[in-house]
Q: What sequence folds into this?
DNA sequence: CCGCATCCGTTACGATACTG
DNA sequence: CAGTATCGTAACGGATGCGG
C-alpha cells in the first residue's frame, strides 16, 4: 500500500460521544503519546521510543500519523524534513489533560492493590 | 480451555499510573460497559448486547470476566445462576465516571468536526 | 430463550530487519 | 534518525452451537 497517507477513515460505532472518543483514543498507545507531550512539551520520534513502555516503531509511526490527521498533535516544523522534527500538542491534544489526570487518579486509587509499585505521573 | 477462569494475569508495561490504567481499560469496549452501568444502574448480558455498538458475545463475556476480576463490576446475585443475573458497578467502577465525563466532553468539543451527528451521553 | 464457549476468517499488534 | 517491510502472534468480530 501507499507509503504516504492522509485520510484516515473512521468507522464511528455510534453517535455516542464517549464511544467516539474511544473510537479514536481507545487503545493502549495513543494517550501515552499525549502523556509524553504533556510531560515534555515537544518530543521527537526517537524520544517517544525511549519512554519506558517501549512502543514499537510501526505502532508509533501509525499513531503519530493518526493523531496528526485528527489535529491532536502537529509537527513543530511542518515544512521541514522529518529528521529532528519534533511533535507537540495542538489545543485539541492539550485538552486531553483532564482525561489523563482522571485515569491516573483512578489507577492510583483502585489499581494499586494489583500493581504495588505503581507511581504518580503527569 | 477451562470453562471457569479467575486469575487474569496482567503484564504491566511500566510503573506509570496512566499506563496501568490503559493496560486495563485501554480498549474500545471496557469503558462502554461501565458507561451502560452508569446510565442504567444494572445490566444483564443481553441488555449489554442491545447497546447501539453491538459488541460480539465473546468480547462481552471476556470483558465482563476481566472487569469482575478487577473488582470494577460485580453480579447483583453473586451466588445465583447466570441467567438474568445482572451486573452493577462496584465503588471502583463508579469512580470511573469522571473519566467517562472528560472523554465525552473532549469528544463533543474536538471530534464533532469529524463526526457531525455526535450526541451527548452519560 | 439466555448466557455464554467454540470455531474461524480477518484485522491489529509487536519484534526485528532494513532503507533513504 | 525516522520511518517502512516483513512476518509471526494475538485480538477481534460474526456465526453458530449448546447447556441450563
A:
Amino acid at each position: 500500500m501507499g507509503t504516504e497517507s492522509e485520510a484516515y477513515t473512521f468507522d464511528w460505532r455510534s453517535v455516542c460521544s464517549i464511544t467516539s472518543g474511544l473510537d479514536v483514543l481507545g487503545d493502549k498507545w495513543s494517550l501515552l503519546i499525549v502523556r509524553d507531550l504533556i510531560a515534555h512539551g515537544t518530543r521527537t520520534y526517537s524520544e517517544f521510543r525511549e519512554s519506558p513502555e517501549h512502543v514499537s516503531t510501526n505502532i508509533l509511526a501509525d499513531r503519530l500519523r493518526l493523531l496528526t490527521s485528527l489535529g491532536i498533535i502537529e509537527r513543530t516544523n511542518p515544512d521541514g524534513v522529518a529528521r529532528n522534527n519534533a511533535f507537540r500538542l495542538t489545543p485539541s491534544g492539550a485538552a486531553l489533560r483532564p482525561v489523563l489526570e482522571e485515569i491516573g487518579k483512578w489507577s492510583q486509587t483502585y489499581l494499586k492493590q494489583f500493581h504495588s509499585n505503581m507511581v504518580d505521573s503527569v
